[in-house]
Amino acid sequence: MSNDDSAQRRANFSAVQDGKVLRITLTNPKRKNAIDYDTMIGLGDAFLAAAQDRAVRVIVLTGAGGDFCTGADLAASPGEAARGITSDMVMDAANRVVKSIVDVPVPVIARLRGAAAGVGVGIALAADLVYASDDAYLLLAFINIGLMPDGGAAAMVAAAAGRPLAAEMALLGERLPAPAAKQAGLFTAVVPAEELDAKVEAAAAKLANGPRRAIELTKRALNRATLGALDQALATEKSGQTELLQSPDFIEGATAMLTKRKPVFAD
């Protein structure tokens, strides 16, 4: 494998410095910004690099096209397995993305259109501010393919909205529309699609020119108050999900999803 091949595989996101704002965009709209292993690694690297860059004062995270992120790209799994990428490695990479968003000292703004599903929910809710268009929705669809939530999603939903809603989303695997997500405390604001960019840019400009150290310490305090159990949740998810990824139910669920039929799980 050449270095060019590696770079090409990691091309499903872009990170562009725009003054004090770092704009990170998922760039796989044909797959509704589903992310493969290499993209997870690249995203984690980008946030870790931003944490060391004093020129970055705020990060805007979004997806190209009409969706934010529909989770892990199952279509990429066979190729990843052929390269020796294990379930453990994928889980570690996904957890690293979420942790890098939480731990980066500057504020992260998630800009949501369309679907935030699967690990995309965890990635979105790891941000400090979540602005969504009125056509956006959250979907913990793991149960529909024989898996459990990961990326800290269930823990972050429960932290913001409580256990009942987290259980409903995780166990039933149904969409939570943007207005309901806002009412539950999961989104900062919901606006018409044509107003989303203005809302995001106003917040980014204010944060970019605010008192850096005060903002950093405020973010740290809020995260410690609300996400103190995140590391434990990620470890529990990794253990359970690694088991489920080897199960007949997941094989059936993934096959059914990719072939667009209803799964038939084991008794």
Automatic annotation (TrEMBL):
Can you provide one Gene Ontology molecular function annotated for this UniProt record? catalytic activity
Record's protein name = Enoyl-CoA hydratase
- The signal peptide annotation in the UniProt record is none
Q: Which Pfam families match?
A: ECH_1
Q: Which residues form a coiled coil?
A: none
For this chain, the family text in UniProt reads: Belongs to the enoyl-CoA hydratase/isomerase family.
Taxonomic source organism = Nocardia arthritidis
Domain of life (superkingdom): Bacteria
**Phylogenetic classification of the source organism:** Bacteria, Bacillati, Actinomycetota, Actinomycetes, Mycobacteriales
